[in-house]
Amino acid sequence: MKALIIDDERLARKELISLLAVHEHITIVGEAANADEAEALIAEKQPDLVFLDINMPGRSGFELLEALDQSPQVIFVTAYDEHALKAFSVNALDYLLKPIDPQRLAGAVAKLQEFHAQDGPQRELLRETDQIFLKDGEKCWFVTLKDVRSFESEGNYVRVRFNDQKPLVLRSLNKLEEKLDPLVFFRANRKHIINLRWVESIEPWFSGGLMVKLKHHGKDGQPETIEVSRRQAARFKELLSL
Predict the structure, then answer these.
(1) Could you give the 3-state DSSP secondary structure of residue 84?
(2) Domain CATH code at residue 146
(3) CA–CA distance from 88 to each of 52, 63, 84, 136, 175 (Å)?
(4) In 3D, which of 196, 194, 197 has the Cα closest to residue 227?
(5) For range 16-30, the mean pLDDT
(6) Domain containing 109: what range?
(7) What tens digit of pLDDT does each residue of 47-96 get?
(8) CB 228: neighbour CB atoms within 10 A?
(9) pTM of the full predicted structure?
(10) Given strand 223-228, what is the order of strands in its sheet?
(11) Is-cis flag, bond preceding 99, omega within 30?
(12) I need a surface site. Which of 60, 157, 177, 219 has the fewest CB within 10 A?
């Protein structure tokens, strides 16, 4: 399992590397001293896990996670305990206080192994012709996936857009992405997955991103638009190129 250590204190990084040496299934593939370095390393190394400090110069650990389109598993490592509640609200696997107790670290690693064991083998990807069942309040739908234009994360829920409907269902966008065909359903940014079959036009956008218009117009006659983040733009062009 590939892991990154993100902490502005060099000695803290070295200590954690030393403590992790006994956990042979975890391989440290890089270190970062701040959020900017970490963001670049995460994009390059694609780690399964990050050990993340919260209070760092510049952006905090929480702000780093908000900037990522897809986040690896996170174990927070910090000198302060007041952030624990927020840490678990962003689905952190564990929250370790400095100085790190080796037994607490072992417990966090065991939790990680348990998480992956429960996850089990990946199920077969859903196809465009498959139907999904959706329920929002009293309303229910059977929807063919090819008719779904986009999925949008709203907290612990996902907004599903098809026809003129947009039910809100209790789902994780990350878990949903794992079930969808990546050649059809594309993670445009941290909050959106779009159906590439519904893309009508593409325009350059700010900071190297793209603005995508979908083949559906709202009641006001305006086309639906979704931004493709700078990080995802290159892969997006790749998928839609000859």
Answers:
(1) helix
(2) 2.40.50.1020
(3) 13, 15, 6, 26, 17
(4) 194
(5) 95
(6) 2-118
(7) 989 999 999 999 999 999 888 877 788 999 998 877 776 766 566 778 89
(8) 26
(9) 0.54
(10) 199-204, 210-217, 223-228
(11) yes
(12) 219
